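Quick illustration for those who missed Monday's session on complexes.
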Amino acid sequence: MSLLLEAKNYRDNFRKELANLNITKNSVEELRIKYLGKKGILNRLFQGFGSLQPEERKEFGQIVNSFKNDLNVQFEVLQNKLSEQEVSKDFFDYSLPGKKPETGYMHPISQTMREISKIFREMGFDIEYGPEVETDYYNFQALNFPDNHPARDMQDTFFINNDILLRTHTSPIQVRTMQSQKPPIRILAPGRVFRNEAISARSHCIFHQIEGLYIDENVTFSELKTTLDIFAKRYFGSKVKLRFRPSYFPFTEPSAEVDITCFICNGKGCNVCKKTGWLEILGCGMVDPNVLEASGIDSEKYSGYAFGMGPDRITMLKYGITDIRMFFEGDIRFLQQFK
Ligand SMILES: [Zn+2]
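Prediction with zinc ion bound:
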């Protein structure tokens, strides 16, 4: 290949290399040495000048000189770009918007528990918590479930050993509070409970309860009814009606289950209330004297009421959630709907 052609090729190649260059200190320096270094391409071309035929010299001289100028200009541009990079490394634009950290949302059950707690707090109830791992005494015996009592079968229990278990309800908090405080006692006990049940769309081995307890002199069933009526109207809407049905719980006597008129169909009957117009939302009753005595409270002097409800079921009814397992799967697409 003639030197003239070679010079043209180098010139074209340089343009290509320049276009593909990832501009860093090292890459620019490498390219500079390749073309402008002592043993670089430009010097080699100049050294070949003497071997050219006289008629080629003029054109060759023009090409190599303009190539040299181009190289000088382009490397100056590259140097400027490198300095800009240096500066921008230290430059901080204070007007840029900040990065938004991904934040979670409050779980719908937690929201429900807070809303319910707020209503009862405004009625003078204090919030109490207790351990999720309990003893048989606090979970059963002190609540009037003696050994071998058939009522124990109502609650399939996760036992850790003979005496230690995962609480099956939040009622142990009632016992612990009655032991540590003197009447009047007015508490709300929210928390997570555990039962050894098959997991399905309708039931889970983990769920939540909120229980209330009021102990004082001369507490009556009508006070219980009034308290629950105020709660239901504030939480579910002022048009809601309550219905008390006799029931059985070991720790209350008498006991009742409470239904409200379906807040979806206003009592007319729909799929959610199974055409009955009523929704069962809580259980309640007057605290059994045995439970008071087990906690060291004089059942001749004091009486009290207790009630309990399931925030999981209430949340499902409120938002039309058909599968309880959604609460425990941590699926962000589900949770984002409750922002
Ligand atoms: Zn209905």
